[in-house]
Amino acid sequence: MGYRNHLIAELRTQYAYSPARVRVAQARRIEELIPEIRPDQVYPYDYVCYRITQFRVESHAGEVIPGEVLADDLRTLLRRLSTIV
Q1: Sign of CA dihedral 52, 10, 61, 66
Q2: Angstrom distance (rounded) from CA 19 to CA 37
Q3: How far apart are CA 67 and CA 20, in angstroms?
């Protein structure tokens, strides 16, 4: 299964370069974020990225992700992270 949003796919690519301890911490943050996502809302990418990485990004700051797409992609990301953690 692939990602529905290209920004979450890019985030996944960045994990390949992160140390294991960082991936573990970010996986935990994704687990905490998923239940908060409402399918009928949209979420700014910079907010999502900050919640996962704890870094503020300026790139793609104006882009938003529909909640339904975000929740699905975060679940996919979490499954894929668990295979490389």
Answers
A1: negative
A2: 27
A3: 28
